[in-house]
Amino acid sequence: MKKIKDKYFEPFISHQKILHRIGELAAEIDKKYAQQTPILLGVLNGSFRVLADLVTALTIPVEVSFLRVSSYEALQTTGQVKEILGLEEDIQSRPVIIVEDIVDTGTTLLQVREQLLRAQPASLEVFTLLHKPEALQKELTLDYVGFNIPNAFVVGYGLDYDGLGRSLNDLFILKA
Ligand code: IMP
Question: Is 71 in the pocket of ligand 1 (CB under 6 A)?
């Protein structure tokens, strides 16, 4: 059990399981992009760990960049993306894979996707470590999903509760 600020969290998915699953998805990406050099675009802040482990597991050459988006305050989504910053790279005619830590309502991802599509990439796929299918409110295709999880708040492995918990190696889930 972990206490972060006022909340208690229980062990949920171990670091070992996370790495194993990332390895499986990396093998799919290796195969699909064998003749290409995709740009992996991490959505900050939560994706920094999953993106690092994903590029470690991949054997194809990739480029790495980050976007910054913020739509969440403490335990609840604010329902709208406040800002999208970053993206220095020219992604026109390049294969792009968005890398997310978690897709909850899908609001963030939908807006990121729309913005990136305007830059006319050759292809645009989505990788997310976690997905809460019950919370999804948008029409979205997720190409690589690590784990489908219940509609509950999780921390660790890059994901935070009110700024804390990102450094935990395992994932923890809010105690009911
Ligand atoms: P969405 O726009 O509702 O899909 O929210 C996506 C963003 O909200 C993610 O990139 C996370 O930063 C944050 N988020 C959603 N669910 C959780 C959670 O369970 N723990 C921590 N952050 C979360």
Answer: yes
- Name 145's bridge partners: 128
pTM above 0.90, yes or no: yes
Look at strands 123-131 and 39-44 and give their pairing.
Answer: unpaired
Q: Which structure tokens are listed for 165?
A: 């918990």
- List pLDDT tens digits, range 75-121: 555 555 555 667 767 899 999 999 999 999 998 899 899 889 989 99
Domain boundary assignment for the chain: 15-151
Judged on CB neighbours under 10 Å (0-12, 13-18, 19+), 15 is middle
CA R_g for the chain: 16
| The domain made up of 15-151 is a member of CATH 3.40.50.2020 | yes
104 among known catalytic residues:
yes
Nearest ligand 1 atom to the CA of 174 is: 19
Contact status, residue 75 vs residue 50, Cβ threshold 8 Å: no
